[in-house]
């Protein structure tokens, strides 16, 4: 879709909210809390969560952190000015709220607040019980503080700032105590923060299906220690039985592309799920941050942008 950048609003240190509207002024496609869009900017394609209320039909709002370690996307976004035309995808949602939850716990680390802000908006409007725990390095890096200070949010929101010392940091064991079937938790933020939440939830006895996470970018998962970390292997395209070599240090997507086979990709970090591909035979070496542990154990799909193979051959449904 073609959209226009209406406003770029600083909301915290190195964080701006970008307000996007349809280029022709028409209403934008509806979305659900937790959804994200792909944004094409300066030759990059990046995923950004929608942070406004899902009932907003006239504009999408995304929060973008200007990351010093950026691969280029966030720097390009922060260089944009109002009036710029952009191309975006329709909203996609791999991180939806559970409509049957009796209570919802939202845990945000840094810029991970963006999808959880939309969730808080929806839960507030629906009158459902929730709590939002928001962790940042210091108060100046906490986005949406003014919004979260109003009635309907303030009584549900808890801030934690590293700058205020160890005692001011979140106690995950306390926050995640007393799990039950109707309670759901959602976490978004840096990989270390998410892993800490998942570990605390597991220790407290949370059902795995009640803990939902979304990585916005991170290091890949560790490779299988029993395999040659980046060794060569082959993939077979099931539709034509063509065999393609995947050399050491080359991703499956790169090897396929070199052979004239295009697989849709976006983040190329194993985060967004765009390139997910069905596996018909062989055992993947999962390196993504998208599939759940149960999905990885099934070994019937993989993300070829980052994952490799534990067997000499993978047969893919391509």
TrEMBL record:
Organism superkingdom: Bacteria
E.C. numbers: 1.-.-.-
Cited InterPro entries: 2Fe-2S_ferredoxin-like_sf (IPR036010), 2Fe-2S_ferredoxin-type (IPR001041), 2Fe2S_fd_BS (IPR006058), Beta-grasp_dom_sf (IPR012675), DmmA-like_N (IPR054582), FAD-bd_FR_type (IPR017927), FNR_nucleotide-bd (IPR039261), MRET (IPR050415)
One function term, GO molecular function aspect: dioxygenase activity
N-terminal signal peptide: none
Names of required cofactors: FMN
Domain (2Fe-2S ferredoxin-type) ranges: 233-318
Keywords: 2Fe-2S, Dioxygenase, Flavoprotein, FMN, Iron, Iron-sulfur, Metal-binding, Oxidoreductase
Ranges of residues in domain FAD-binding FR-type: 1-98
The protein's name: Phthalate dioxygenase reductase
Alphabetized Pfam families for the sequence: DmmA-like_N, Fer2
Keyword Iron-sulfur: yes
Transmembrane segments: none
Record flagged with keyword Endoplasmic reticulum: no
């Amino acid at each position: 879709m073609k959209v226009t950048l209406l406003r770029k609003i600083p909301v915290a240190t190195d964080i701006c909210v970008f307000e996007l509207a349809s280029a022709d002024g028409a209403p934008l496609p509806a979305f659900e809390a937790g959804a994200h869009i792909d944004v094409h900017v300066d030759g990059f394609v990046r995923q950004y969560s929608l942070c406004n209320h899902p009932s907003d039909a006239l504009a999408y709002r995304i929060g973008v952190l200007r990351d010093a370690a950026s691969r280029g996307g966030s720097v390009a976004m922060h260089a944009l000015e109002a009036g710029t035309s952009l191309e975006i995808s329709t909203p996609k949602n791999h991180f939806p709220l559970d409509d049957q939850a009796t209570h919802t716990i939202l845990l945000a680390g840094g810029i991970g607040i963006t999808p959880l802000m939309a969730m808080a908006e929806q839960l507030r409007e629906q009158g459902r019980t929730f709590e939002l725990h928001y962790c940042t390095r210091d108060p100046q890096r906490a986005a949406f503080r003014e919004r979260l200070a109003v009635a309907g949010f303030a009584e549900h929101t808890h801030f934690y700032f590293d700058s205020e010392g160890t005692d001011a940091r979140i106690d995950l064991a306390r926050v995640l105590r007393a799990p039950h079937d109707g309670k759901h938790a959602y976490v978004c933020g840096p990989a270390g923060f998410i892993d800490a939440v998942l570990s605390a939830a597991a220790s407290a006895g949370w059902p795995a299906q009640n803990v939902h996470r979304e990585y916005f970018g991170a290091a890949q998962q560790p490779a299988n220690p029993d395999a040659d970390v980046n060794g060569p292997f082959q993939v077979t395209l099931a539709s034509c039985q063509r065999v393609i070599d995947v050399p050491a240090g080359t991703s499956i997507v790169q090897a396929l592309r070199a052979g004239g086979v295009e697989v849709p990709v976006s983040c190329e970090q194993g985060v967004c799920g765009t390139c997910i591909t069905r596996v018909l035979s062989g055992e993947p070496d999962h390196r993504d941050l998208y599939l759940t542990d149960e999905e990885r154990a099934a070994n019937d799909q993989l993300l070829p942008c980052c994952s490799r193979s534990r067997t000499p051959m993978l047969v893919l449904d391509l």
